[in-house]
Structures are given as structure tokens and as C-alpha cells.
Amino acid sequence: MYDFAILGGAFNPIHNGHLYIAQEIIKQEVAQEVIFIPNGQHPLKNTPLVLPYKQRFTLIESAIADYPNLSISNLDCPDYGISYTFHLIKRLKSAYPNKDFTFVIGYDNALNFAKWYEAEWLLNNTNFTVVSRNSPDQANHQIDSRFNILTITPYDISSTEIRQRLERHSDISHLVPHKIIPQLIAYWKNLRLASHQ
Asked: Under 8 Å CB-to-CB from 175, ≥6 apart: which residues?
């Protein structure tokens, strides 16, 4: 079991699927703790409709407040500029020199991992856990055998769907933690207003 697992990404916004994955990591004894690390400036994503970093950070803080094994870090905040996973891993190793951790990615990311910046260095210096619906044997046929596989029951929620529902003023109560809904709606409304100025 690792000391902690890293869940990185835009979290635009965080949703119940993210929390489910985090809980499965704890439940299946992959790691003792899960640390959420929202990215500041992703090198491959450039869309104006991304909630500001501080708002995404605040929503995650609120969403995980009642989970003792979940925490959040600012090691990928905008102060670091455009940041690849390679840079984040180096910061993590510096911040936690005596900790053993795993970096969690989705199966689609694992399929395209060869295209990642410094992919071989990452594989040689980082433990990766791939969230998959397939059994480890099935999954490893298509991805690098150095990845660990976390098999979970599908939980189909996407941040894209939530943003589309926010645009239509549709119900999102089954998609995100109830406690963040008023804040999320207010943030999204302000973002849309700002985008039209």
C-alpha cells in the first residue's frame, strides 16, 4: 500500500465520480490517503470556460471536507506556469522525499502515455495506477505492463456533462456533492458573465 495516491486534473468541476474513485483507492487499499491536485495551467487544454484555479480549489476543499483520508495540495497552482506531469512529479518528490506515492490516471491516458512529455522518465521514476473497467490481465494487453491496474465498477459522470447542465440550468444534484451546488452555480454564472464582456 502506498502512503498516498495523487488525483490530478482540471476538476472543472469536481464531481461524485472523482470522489468515488478516491474512495475506491482507499477501499481497495491502494493507498492510505488520496491527495487532489488541481492543475493551474494545463499544457494541452486551452479553453476560456475553465473556472479560475482558486474557485476549483475551494470547491474541492468543500467536497472532501468530510472525508478523513482525502486532502488537497496546491503543488500545481498557476504560480508554476504551464506544467507537465513530469514537473509535478519532481515537485512531489521534493515535497515528500520519504513518502511512497502513486499517480492515478485514466485508462485513455494510459493508452496514449507514450505521447506524454518525458514519458519514459515518468515510467522509470513514478508509480502509476490506471483506473480501468477491465481486469488487470485484459488491461495490460493494451498498456505498459509497468502500470498498476485499479479495477472499478463504471461510474459514468463527466465534468463536461455538468458544465452542459449548468449552461441549460438543469439539475446537477445527482452529479456533484450537494454542499457545493450553490457555490458552483454562482461561480459558473460569474464565469459566463465574464466570458461575454
From this structure: 15, 16, 157, 161, 162, 165
For residue 92, give the C-alpha cell.
Answer: 512531489
- Supply φ then ψ for residue 84, to 5 degrees: -90, 165
Q: What is the mean pLDDT of the chain?
A: 90
Query: 59-113 pLDDT, tens per residue?
Result: 999 999 999 999 999 999 999 988 899 999 999 999 999 999 999 999 889 999 9
The Cα–Cα gap between 25 and 135 comes to 16
CA dihedral 156, 162, 163, 167 (to 10 degrees): 130
Q: How far is Cα 56 from Cα 58, in angstroms, rounded to an integer?
A: 5
Instruction: For 104, list phi and psi in degrees, rounded to 5.
Output: -95, 130
**3 state SS of 150:** strand
Cα dist from 149 to 32, 99, 106, whole Å: 17, 21, 10
pLDDT in tens, 105-129: 998 899 999 999 999 999 999 999 9
Cell numbers at residue 154, please? Answer: 463504471
